[in-house]
Amino acid sequence: MTNNMQPIFILPEDYQRISGKSALKNNISAAIAVADTVRTTLGPKGMDKMLVDSSGNTIITNDGVAILEEMEIEHPAAKMIVEVARTQEEEVGDGTTTAVIIAGELLKNAQSLLEQNIHPSIIIKGYRIAQAKALETLKMISVEIKEKDTETLEKIGETAITGKGAEIAKEHLSRSAVKAISRVTENGEPDIDNIKICKKHGDSVENSELIEGVVIDKERAHSGMPKKVENARIAMLDLPVEIRDTEIDAKIQITDPEKIQQFLDVEEKMLREMVNKIEKSGANVIFCQKGIDEIAQFFLSQKRFLAVRRVKKSDMEKLSKATGATIVNNLEELSQKSLGHARLVQEKKIGNENFIFVEKCNNPKAVTILIRGATEHVVEEVERAVKDSVGDIASAVKSRRVVGGAGACEIEISKELMGFASTFKGKEQLAIESFAKSLEVVPKTLAENSGFDPIDLLAELKSAHEKSEIWAGISVLDGKITDSWKQGVIEPLKIKTQAVNSATEVAVMILRVDDVIAASKKKQPGAGNPLGEEQQEQ
Ligand code: ADP
Ligand code: MG
To answer: What CATH architecture is 22-144+404-519?
Structure first.
C-alpha cells in the first residue's frame, strides 16, 4: 500500500537530509577523519604540518589548533571537533591535539558499540559515568605544588615546548615564561593578558628574552629626540597634543594674509603651553595614544623629551601596568604623581624596524617576551610554543595541581575506569570500558609517533601501572617505560580535565544526532556536498 503512495516532500528540493544510522555513521566518520589528521603531530617526536592557504601563505606547525583552524573544514560534525580544539586553546592554551584525538577515539569505539546494536543513549550514559569517574581519578592522583615552586613550573613550561620548533631553547624560554607569569600574578591569579609577546625574525631563538617592561613597535616622534633616556619619568596621555583635530577634516577660511600669521602664532602659543604643562610634571618620556603636532614634536625634542605618538590602547594599558603611570586624558590632571618609572627607555633597531623598549621597570605588572628566530616561520612557531608554555604554567599556578605526562595519567585513569566498569552490568559496562580504552590513544600515539611498537609498549606500560607506578610513562627517546615525573614531563591538571571534558562533550553531542538536514549552499563552482556524496535520502 505504501508503495503506491506519493512521496511527501517536507523540505525544499535542494535540501540535503540524511537520517538514522547513516547520519550517525557519516558524522562519526567525518569527526574521526579530522582527529586522524592531527594524530601524527602529538608529542615531542610528532611531525609538523605544512599548510598553505588560498593566497599562498604557508605555515609550518605542530600545534593542533593552528592546523585545524587553517584547514577550512566544511563538514558540520568535523567542525565540532575543531571546536574542541578551540575550547581547549581558550581554556588552557595547550593540549589541543590530546583533546582532539581522545574525542576521535571515543567516537571510534562508540562506532563499534553501535555495530553491536547498542543504542546511542546507552553509550552516552556510560560515557557520562566514565567522564565523572575520570575527573575524580585525575583530581585524586594530581599533585599539589606551591605557587613559587619555580623548578616544577619550569619543567611544565619545558614539557609544553618539547618537540616544537623552539626546542633548542626550551630551558631558556621556559625560565622566561615562569618569570613572566610571576610578574603578572596577583593573589595567586595570573593574568596572562599582561604578558606581551613581541616577535621579530633575524636572530636565533636562543636570543629571545624577557623584558621587564614593555616593547612596542613604534619609534620616536621626532628624529631630534634622544634615543635613550635613563631613569625615565613617564607621562601617559590619552589626548591629542594638537590644536587642530586631525581626525575631523575642517576648513578654515582666512581671507586676510595678516590673519594667517596671527592664527599660526596663536596655535604655536597654545602648543607651547601644552608642552610646558607636560614639562612641569617632571616627565622626560611621553607615550601618547593620540597624535602629537609637528610643532609640538619640535618643542619636545628641544626640551630633550623622548615622545612616542599614536600608541595602541592595549600597549598603553600594558605600559601603565609596567611603569605604574596613570593614563591622563586632560593635561590639568598630569602631575608628578601620575608619572610612571623605568630605569631605561630606548629606541632600538631590530632588523630594519625600530622598537621602543621600556625596560628595567621596578616590579612591573606587565612584561614582554621578545621572541627571536631565524625566519618568520620559525618565529611564528616559537610564538605558538611559548604561548602553550605560558598557558600551562599559568594554569598550574592557578590550580596548583599538576600531573605526570608522557601518557602516564591517561593510563592511570584508564586502569581505574576498567576496574570501575566491572561494577556495572551489561551494555553500560561495555560503554565505560570503551571510554577507558579510548584514553589509551594518548600513550599509543606517543609511541607510534616516536617510531616504537605501540602494542608492546602499551602492554609494558599497563603492567607498570598494575604495579602502582602511577607516573610510569613512555620515554620517547629510547622507547622504554620511565617515570614521567622524574623525567620532568609534568603538565597542569587542567589540560587533562579539560581534554576529558571537551572530548566527552563533543562525542556525546555527535552521538545524539540522528538526523542532519542541511540547506544547500548558494551554488559555488566546485563546491562540495557538505554531507558527503551519495548519502542523501531525500
Ligand atoms: P598537545 O597539543 O596535546 O599539547 P603535544 O604535541 O604538545 O600535543 O603533545 C603533548 C603530549 O606529549 C602530552 O601527552 C605530553 O605528556 C607528551 N610529552 C611532552 N613531552 C614529553 C616527553 N619529554 N616525553 C614523553 N612525552 C612527552
Ligand atoms: Mg602541547
So the answer is: Orthogonal Bundle (1.10)
